[in-house]
Amino acid sequence: MEDNGTPFGNKLQLYCERGFLLRISDSGVISGTDDNSDPYSGTKANSVIQIQLIISAHLELSSGDEIGTVKIRGIHSGLYVCFGENGKPSAKENPGLPGTTFREDFYGHSYNSYESKDYPGWMLGINKAGQAKNGTKTEAGKKSTKFLPIRL
């Protein structure tokens, strides 16, 4: 599949072991949502906001620039997950920026983690309140950094 000349891979949702789906808002905010109802499966959403939350949790993973690396893009927003130099995760339009490539590591029980290629040790994570964790405060193997890929 092609979108503006860029090849994309798997369409999925990333379910954090903390109980949230990773979402990328149109404004570039990375967070979690615990609303996993699917407007396309017959479940009725209660509002336009609920539909936006669901759709903003639909992601595409594309290959990064090295074997074992990926870029994470919000299907609805068109933005890529990115770490800034201060460790704060956000979403950016340009997939070539530093901090947009992640090493995908596989854990048992089908969970994956996503560590920044440009900032080793910084993991993508969601805290227990559903907010994106600063990469400088994450650890491999913790609930906040383990994601179950759910294909759409």
UniProtKB/TrEMBL annotation:
Protein name: Fibroblast growth factor
A single GO molecular function term of this UniProt record: growth factor activity
Entries under PANTHER family matching the protein: FIBROBLAST GROWTH FACTOR (PTHR11486)
InterPro entries: Fibroblast_GF_fam, IL1/FGF, Let-756-like_FGF
UniProt family annotation: Belongs to the heparin-binding growth factors family.
CDD domains xref list: beta-trefoil_FGF (cd00058)
Recorded superkingdom: Eukaryota
SUPFAM superfamilies per the UniProt record, alphabetical: Cytokine (SSF50353)
Pfam family, one: FGF
